[in-house]
Prior knowledge:
This protein has 375 residues and is α/β, with parallel strands linked by helices. It has 13 helices and 15 strands. The protein has helices spanning 2-16, 39-58, 78-90, 102-115, 128-131, 145-160, 173-188, 207-216, 227-239, 255-261, 280-293, 301-318, 323-332; strands at residues 25-32, 66-73, 95-97, 118-121, 138-140, 164-169, 192-198, 220-224, 246-248, 269-273, 335-337, 340-344, 350-351, 354-361, 364-373. Strands 7-6-8-9-10-14-15 form a seven-stranded mixed β-sheet, sandwiched between helices. α2 packs parallel to α12 (301-318).
Amino acid sequence: xxxxxxxxxxxxxxxxxxxxxxxxxxxxxxxxxxxxxxxxxxxxxxxxxxxxxxxxxxxxxxxxxxxxxxxxxxxxxxxxxxxxxxxxxxxxxxxxxxxxxxxxxxxxxxxxxxxxxxxxxxxxxxxxxxxxxxxxxxxxxxxxxxxxxxxxxxxxxxxxxxxxxxxxxxxxxxxxxxxxxxxxxxxxxxxxxxxxxxxxxxxxxxxxxxxxxxxxxxxxxxxxxxxxxxxxxxxxxxxxxxxxxxxxxxxxxxxxxxxxxxxxxxxxxxxxxxxxxxxxxxxxxxxxxxxxxxxxxxxxxxxxxxxxxxxxxxxxxxxxxxxxxxxxxxxxxxxxxxxxxxxxxxxxxxxxxxxxxxxxxxxxxxxxxxxxxxx
Length: 375
């Protein structure tokens, strides 16, 4: 079915008698959650692409052409992703920033692969997206879940010295992957699993889960999933007077999480890219967002900013959107971004950026002295 959709989209392109490289503009596709429950993840990425392309266009564009954004909303739902990806292909985009969530990325990549499109995700972290070798045209400016799990498990074992672990996840590619990877590393390190359970993301009442946590008596709760579920879980735990420490992946480190949980978020841990706010590229990216939108950037903004910079740099250096040339350029050219100077390794993962552990203190995520550099 997916292959058929991709072939149909490609037939439409051929019928039009044009390619992205021959058009009057260079089209950048942007796929992600631009509405719905996870819009707080997708909208910052879309904003980042808009700002980077606006800056490029203000300087004359790329290769004598203006850069045009073609956005498609998949709400971070795999069932909407194939339609969004097919529309991008039929709209003759040259490259894609996104998708942002792992499930939709898994669903979309066969279509992009069939169409010969490079896709760079700012926030899709499932390891298999790069490590299986099935998606050679896929890149990302975020650490995969293996890297996050390596950091969080090391932190729990060697800094917090925990022995008994409870794992909760939303049963999605992203959430369960993070929980599974942590469990493997923690058990290898001698920690005991006292609970491993999926929760229903749409559930309103998590009191039954909290009762299981109370009986299991873990030293820490490892959560795999996004901030809406994390927020509800933390609130339920604190409401039921369960003060067990809570740690999650980068999907938890979001301003919306802090707003939803309030004081209940105090002490929560999360992994996230290392603070690079002292870099000039970071300052420039932040100032651009504040000027344009009157607010601080949200989750994934800097990752998407970096993804767009890397793509535009590759297009400029190779003279177009030829897939083979772009692929080589992304792997060999290091680009100064808000995340630091990065390029991509042979698998497509970002090399050069770093991850840190953060903790909520006085209502803000504060970076702790525990990090790892990606290779």
